[in-house]
Amino acid sequence: MKHILLTKRQEEILRLVQKQGPVTGEALAEQLGVTRATLRPDLAFLTRTGILAAKPRVGYYYDGSGIPDALSHKLKALIVRDWMGVPMVIDSKLSVYDAVVEVFMRDVGSLFITSPAEGLVGIVSRKDLLRASMGQNDIRNLPVSMIMTRMPNLITCRPEETLLFAAQKLQDHQIDSLPVVSETAGEKPELLGRITKTTIVKAFVRLGS
């Protein structure tokens, strides 16, 4: 399996599963000293590529048959941190009108809202702004915080996730962009970047060429 590009943590997971499997995600997290949520992207990658298999209420196991083909390997080796773009950030006190101007001036589909005290607090899309503009509101005096999607309802991704996993989230939730965040227990979510549908297209074009 030398042609499979794994992170250091994924290699450690594979070693533990080969030695102990079947083993639950909770047991793996405990042995590695991380949370179950932290391991979720790694376990998703290992099962999606077929390197590991999993059974409900049993755990993860390795049977030696999960060797993906070259194209599948290249696709699933694309990592979010290598493709994320610069997030377009605005203040929550900005008006909807000003947010509309920002969207068209920066030519983006979504704007991220942060605060010094809470970190990432929300996101507003072109659809949100269009909906507000078509209503009966005075958008020059309506704060963008009134129409944004707020935490914890945001769909996010982490830098160590695969780009394929991020693309799946975009498709499943029918959204245009994902904030890339670094989450540590007890700390505010730090906004690191963004992944958009355009990002996915660029990655696939690069892969194909």
Descriptive overview:
By secondary structure, this protein is an alpha+beta fold. The protein folds into two domains: 8-69, Winged helix-like DNA-binding domain superfamily/Winged helix DNA-binding domain (Arc Repressor Mutant, subunit A), CATH 1.10.10.10; 82-208, CBS-domain (Roll), CATH 3.10.580.10. The chain contains eight helices and eight strands. The chain has helices spanning 8-20, 25-32, 36-48, 70-76, 96-106, 126-134, 163-173, 197-208, and strands spanning 53-55, 59-61, 89-91, 110-115, 119-125, 149-150, 177-182, 190-196. Strands 3-4-5-6 form a four-stranded mixed beta sheet. The longest helix is centred in the first third of the chain and has 13 residues, at 8-20. It is elongated and about 65 Å long. The relative contact order is 0.14. The model has no long low-confidence stretch (mean pLDDT 86).
In short:
The chain is α+β, with helices and mostly antiparallel strands. Helices cover 40% and strands 18% of the residues. It has two domains: 62 residues, Arc Repressor Mutant, subunit A (Orthogonal Bundle), CATH 1.10.10.10; 127 residues, CBS-domain (Roll), CATH 3.10.580.10.
